[in-house]
């Protein structure tokens, strides 16, 4: 019976890996087609270089599709890129383990990271309502907490990703008795964003993703950054409609072009018309200092994507941290290789901390 259980477990894991890589292959193929339709086909030599790097260095040519996407965006192949599916199946188990999953439980963030930079004002967890200091909060007092500084507030459910599970609440018509229909999650204050950011998207709060790593010698550093702008019809930033613009990690300056969800280029926000060239994120140095301090306080998850914004007084406000599969593909394509010094390309080998993948796939 034990042997049958082992065989069944292996079969389930292999089936899961197959579905994982098939999804990534399909997503990469769709993006590559859109990019090449806009910019023209990639050179055959570039595709060969991607295939060779995936097979010879990363151990499997099934990692090549994301490398081809990165190369199409960058206009060349660059050694050191980490494909997104390699990151998910090989890197994350080695550098995060189960500790990265903690970031999905949003009511734990402020207490775990011991920071008042989070926008949290209340928590709804397992049928209990609590204020930001985890004191019991009755339903009648919730509205005064949520709308203390604005007529809007935000609720984010646990494990919400890509803008799903986010609800914008309004003072008008808010009914705390409807809490029973909500999953566990966090209530956050509405951030009065900096006027420069509001010039791009006045109806929703622009967010900045800053990716940091902790090296083997314990040093935290910033590896990538980009701004996410919502569209005119959105109440908050959504992955299926947002515009992303890379941010220089040294100067805070925006790239000249942003990318749509299909990774086609735009040089201005599609709705407001505000251009990206010459724009610098306000309070960028403060944002960098904030996320580095936070990551030093939680070094167990070695690579974290921090989502934050900048308020009207140029102060950083942290919205969430992402240490699960914290999307690296946009940053690798626009700013990478971001992790070439980390040795992640060796993690698949038998001598590394995790087993080598089985061909034809891990």
Automatic annotation (TrEMBL):
Pfam family, one: ATPgrasp_ST
The Alpha-L-glutamate ligase-related protein ATP-grasp domain, residue ranges: 186-330
This protein's name: Alpha-L-glutamate ligase-related protein ATP-grasp domain-containing protein
Protein species of origin: Pseudonocardia alni
């Amino acid at each position: 019976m034990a042997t049958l259980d082992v065989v069944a477990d292996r079969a389930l894991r292999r089936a899961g890996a197959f579905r994982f890589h098939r999804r990534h292959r399909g997503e990469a193929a769709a993006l590559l087609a859109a990019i090449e339709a806009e910019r023209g086909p990639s050179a055959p030599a570039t595709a060969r270089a991607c295939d060779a790097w995936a097979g010879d260095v990363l151990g499997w040519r099934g990692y090549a599709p994301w490398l081809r996407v990165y190369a199409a965006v960058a206009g060349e192949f660059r050694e050191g890129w980490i494909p997104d599916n390699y990151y998910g199946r090989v890197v994350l188990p080695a550098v995060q383990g189960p500790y990265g999953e903690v970031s999905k439980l949003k009511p734990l963030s402020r207490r775990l990271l011991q920071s008042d930079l989070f926008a949290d004002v209340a928590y709804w967890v397992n049928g209990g309502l609590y204020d930001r200091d985890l004191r019991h909060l009755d339903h009648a007092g919730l509205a005064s907490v949520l709308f203390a500084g604005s007529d809007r507030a935000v609720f984010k459910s646990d494990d919400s990703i890509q803008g799903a599970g986010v609800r914008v609440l309004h003072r008008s018509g808010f009914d705390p008795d409807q809490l029973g229909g909500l999953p566990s999650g966090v209530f956050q204050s509405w951030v009065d964003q900096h006027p420069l950011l509001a010039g791009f998207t006045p109806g929703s709060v622009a967010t900045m993703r800053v990716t940091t790593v902790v090296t083997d010698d314990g040093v935290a550093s910033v590896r990538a950054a980009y701004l996410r702008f919502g569209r005119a019809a959105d109440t908050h930033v959504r992955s299926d409609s947002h515009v992303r613009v890379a941010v220089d990690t040294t100067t805070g300056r925006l790239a000249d072009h942003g990318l749509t969800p299909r990774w086609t280029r735009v040089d201005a926000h599609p709705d407001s018309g505000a251009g990206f060239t010459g724009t610098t994120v306000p309070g960028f140095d403060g944002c960098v200092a904030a996320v580095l301090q936070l990551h030093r306080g939680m070094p167990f998850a070695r690579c974290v994507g921090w989502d934050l914004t900048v308020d009207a007084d140029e102060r950083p406000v942290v919205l969430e941290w992402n240490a699960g599969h914290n999307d690296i593909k946009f940053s690798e394509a626009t700013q990478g290789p971001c992790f070439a010094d980390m040795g992640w390309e060796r993690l698949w080998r038998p001598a590394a901390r995790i087993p080598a993948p089985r061909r034809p796939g891990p």
